[in-house]
Each structure stands twice: as C-alpha cells, then as structure tokens.
C-alpha cells in the first residue's frame, strides 16, 4: 500500500530500529514505547488487520508469534510479556497493517 507506514519501513523508505528481519517478517522497536521492552513484529505482506487474515496467512501469523517469542527471550522478558494485536480504530489500531506488539519488562497490572 502506498500510504502504509509499515510497508514503507519494509521497503526501506522509512528507517526503523530493527531487531529482526527475514523474507517474511520484520521486527523493530516501537517509537512510543508503553513498557521497558516494546517492539512490533510485522509481516512484510500487507494485511490490513487481524480480521483480514485469511487461511492462506495462518502460517505467516504463526511465524509472527514464534519470532516475537524468540525476540522476547533475547531481550530478557521471557518470564512475562504481553502480546497484543489491535483490530480496528475502536480497538486502538492506528496503522492498518497487521502487527503484533510485544510488551514486557514490568509487572502487571497494565492498563487494558
């Protein structure tokens, strides 16, 4: 998508502080962190949001979760972290490209 900030990050048009990248997935630090460890894991394929995931995307979304877990371990939050997907503006989705937040490094409770 031409106006999608995550597609621009994937294309290298906008810089990001990357943690991981392969042919399918990119992960980078959130620019407005809500926890001591807060990064995003994003598929390179543009999918508008969780409700737009199709059966063909199941393996890719599973990979997001696996990569997120590996990066949580590498960033020393494997003992407790949140995985968040927002779907739609009413849920707080701001960038309409499916992405997974990993937040860790502080104890619960966190705001929902």
Distance between the termini: 30 Å
**Rounded radius of gyration (Å):** 13 Å
Please report the first level of CATH classification, the CATH class: Alpha Beta
Instruction: Let me know the largest β-sheet.
Output: 5 strands, antiparallel
Count of separate DSSP helical elements: 2
Structural write-up:
The structure is a single chain. The protein is α+β, with helices and mostly antiparallel strands. The chain has one domain (5-104): HIT family, subunit A, CATH 3.30.428. Helices cover 21% and strands 22% of the residues. It has 2 helices and 5 strands; from the N terminus they run αβββαββ. It has a 5-stranded antiparallel sheet, covered by helices on one side. The longest helix has 17 residues, at 58-74. The radius of gyration is 13 Å and the shape is globular. The N and C termini lie far apart (30 Å). The model has no long low-confidence stretch (mean pLDDT 94).
Concise overview:
This protein is an alpha+beta fold. It contains two helices and five strands, in the order H-E-E-E-H-E-E.
Map the helices and strands:
Layout: H1 5-10, E1 18-21, E2 25-29, E3 37-43, H2 58-74, E4 81-84, E5 100-104
Antiparallel strand pairs: 1-2, 2-3, 3-5, 4-5
Which key features would you list for this structure?
HIT family, subunit A, 112 residues, alpha+beta, 22% strand, 5 strands, 2 helices, five-stranded antiparallel sheet
